[in-house]
Specification:
It contains 22 helices and 22 strands. It has about 650 residues and is α+β, with helices and mostly antiparallel strands. About 10% of the residues have low confidence.
């Protein structure tokens, strides 16, 4: 008989130690070992919203499987959600299971764990289950891959390069030369530290912070951060350093005394049987010219092979080129993502319209803002596109871009109309169409994703009663942020994926501004190569479609070529008489001209603009959100989030 139970308390977790450790196999389960998970929980148990949820599978009372999970509070699309993740951090994380002829198969054990994951979401205890770092060769991954239900939730995550020390290995070219030069010019000695011997954790933390600051200030690596700046993660590692002998730190010191020597460079690994799992490394910026990362790695491998300390040296997650200079071997890992399905749209029913339903239709068609009490997601409508480039994501893959309350109101209106007698239904539809046609229209020509929120977002938000049409001129494929993003992700990212991620940010941001998806157009002009004639042709089409509309874009005084070109094209359209109302937005704070009018933004408009900018600051790689806007124009996004100032001028300004 197989039963499933849940461990929720610190005391119960501690009591599981002996049974849990019997399931651990060296070289397979370090980051989900009892000691590592216990160290993690000791540092996070008092964090707000964190709850332990370890799934225990027993066969005839014997523990045969463990799924170490925890509930964590997060935000998705700006809304608080509860996410079930591993109760740990690490590159390799999986379900533990017993082995033996009389024990249930790993697939059976994994099936019971997956059933609990389904139950958690069905019961709304968590809105998302997200498990990363699942080794591709693990029994858990194999079971998910072979499941008709669960395999769709599994996706490739990242490569983990590793060096095979059981045979010959070689260092990248010139590494030995730099190591000899370092030792010739400085009194450096390689020392090894077990755990927190000689207070090494605090000493290496200072080196890591120094390297982070150097990379940010000197190399503009704004994505760099230090895990030692996170108190709880630091406490987790301190628990591992002080309560186990797993951590082994290799360090270059500027002297022979391990207790007092200055740490010049270090790499810490966790010992997992005959595998060394690289965890963290850094070097002092003043030694950068010696290629410290490579020379330290060479010294470590020489020491490890000389003393026969391991069969494998795992370089950790990330497809960095420098790792593959050492080895051709790599282990892929997966991500498992479970979300509840979208509720289906309500089916229209026939019948007589009630007075309440009639009032709902009248209110909605008149532009009423009453929000429903229980909105649900509607079917996705196709996006408008004037010219869809090959790298533009399909509209059916995205949300419809409308605020949830507005979508729900529309569904209610449609359902109410469907219940009306036919003559009344036709009259209600005519009222709705008339309402849409009589709203004032503003067409916004946006050179790149994020321009609409940074420079014009407040103005869009300040006129909620107008219909706003967003025309995205380029998909933003020319951004140099792709290079720093590759470094941050630790893997190669193609142009199609990059542009799709930019489009996700753009779609979310314009939805925050209150723009309906049907009013978003993507032209697909080349980023960095748009011409005045091509933009003029776009303006001409929209001017014909929407007589009397107002037209807005970036200023022709803007130093950015694409921005200025869009401005010149709109001014030319105004002079040709194609449009009567044309305004141009300055790139504040890059260009400040007192002749331009300051856009008056109330508190609501400021809040809406900040919400739109927040979409360009969201970094959720598992959701395909890479904070490209902030990465591309960090200063502008930060400035406007703090000071949402906008200035606009007419076509007469020279």
């Amino acid at each position: 008989m197989i039963e499933t139970s849940i461990c929720r308390t610190t005391e119960d977790l501690a009591a599981l130690r002996e049974e849990w450790e019997a399931l651990e196999r060296p070289g397979e389960s370090y980051y989900t070992s009892h000691r590592f998970v216990s160290a993690w929980w000791a540092s996070y148990r008092h964090a707000p919203g964190y709850r332990l949820h370890v799934v225990l599978v027993r066969q005839e009372g014997q523990l045969v499987g463990v799924g170490p999970f925890a509930f964590r509070p997060e935000k998705r699309e700006g809304e608080p959600v509860t996410v079930l993740r591993w109760a740990s951090h690490g590159d390799y994380l999986s379900v533990l299971h017993a082995a033996g002829p009389s024990v249930a198969s790993p697939q059976t054990i994994s099936g019971h764990v997956l059933a609990e994951l389904d139950r958690v979401v069905d019961a709304d205890e968590a809105q998302v289950v997200q498990l990363t770092g699942i080794p591709s060769e693990s029994a858990f991954a194999w079971h998910v891959r072979t499941s008709q239900v669960h395999h769709r939730r599994l996706a490739f995550l990242i490569e983990n390069p590793w060096i095979d020390l059981r045979g010959p290995w070689s260092a990248p070219s010139h590494t030995g030369k730099y190591l000899r030069k370092l030792r010739r010019e400085h009194d450096v000695h390689l020392h090894t530290f077990t755990g927190d011997e000689h207070g090494i954790l605090d000493r290496i933390a200072e080196v890591h912070r120094a390297e982070k600051n150097h990379l940010i200030e000197t190399h503009a690596r704004s994505e760099r951060h230090s895990l030692y700046d996170d108190d709880r993660r630091t406490e987790h590692i301190r628990q591992v350093f002080t309560t186990t002998d797993d951590a082994l730190t290799f360090a270059f010191l500027d002297g022979e005394d391990p207790a007092t020597g200055r740490v010049l460079a270090y790499r810490t690994v966790f010992r997992d049987g005959r595998r060394l799992l690289s965890w963290n490394s850094a070097y002092l910026p003043e030694f950068e010219r010696y290629r410290m990362g490579k020379v330290l790695q060479l010294a470590i491998l020489e020491h490890v092979t000389e003393h026969d300390l391991a069969d494998e040296f795992d370089l950790g997650a990330g497809k960095y080129p420098w790792k593959f200079e050492w080895t051709p071997h790599q282990r892929p890992t997966y991500r498992y993502l479970l979300k509840p399905p979208r509720p289906p749209a309500a089916k229209p029913t026939s019948g007589t319209t009630t007075p309440a339903a009639t009032r709902a239709v009248t209110s909605a068609t008149a532009g009423g803002a009453a929000r429903p009490t229980s909105p649900s997601s509607p079917p996705v409508a196709p996006a408008r596109s004037e010219a869809t480039p090959a790298h533009t994501p399909r509209a059916a893959d995205a949300d419809d871009g409308q605020p949830q309350w507005r979508r729900a109101v529309r569904r209610g209106v449609r359902a109410a109309i469907a219940r009306m007698p036919e003559p009344a239904a036709q009259q209600a539809k005519r009222v709705a169409r008339t309402r849409r046609l009589t709203r004032g229209v503003t067409v916004w020509y946006v050179p790149h994703p994020d321009d609409e929120s940074i420079f014009m977002g407040g103005a869009i938000a300040s006129e909620p009663d107008r219909r706003h049409v967003i025309v995205l001129l380029t998909p933003g494929e020319g951004s140099q942020a792709i290079h720093s993003l590759r470094r941050r992700l630790g893997r190669e990212i193609g142009l199609d994926e990059f542009v799709a991620a930019r489009d996700r940010e753009f779609t979310a941001a314009v939805a925050r501004l209150g723009v309906e998806r049907r009013d978003v157009y993507r032209v697909g002009l080349p980023d960095g190569g748009i011409t005045e004639d091509s933009v003029l042709a776009v303006i001409r089409r929209h001017a014909r479609r929407r007589p009397g509309a107002a037209h807005r874009t970036m200023s022709y005084l803007d130093p950015h070529p694409d921005h200025a070109t869009a401005g010149r094209a709109l001014r030319r359209a105004h002079r040709l008489g194609l449009v009567a109302d044309a305004k141009f937005f300055l790139p504040v704070p890059q260009v400040l001209d007192e002749r331009a009018e300051r856009v008056v933004l109330d508190e609501r408009a400021r809040a809406v603009k900040k919400a739109a900018l927040a979409e360009y600051r969201l970094f959720e790689p598992d959701e395909g959100r890479y904070a490209i806007g902030r990465r591309s124009v960090s200063e502008l996004v930060t400035y406007h989030h703090r000071t949402p100032e906008e200035r606009v001028h007419g076509p007469e300004l020279d």
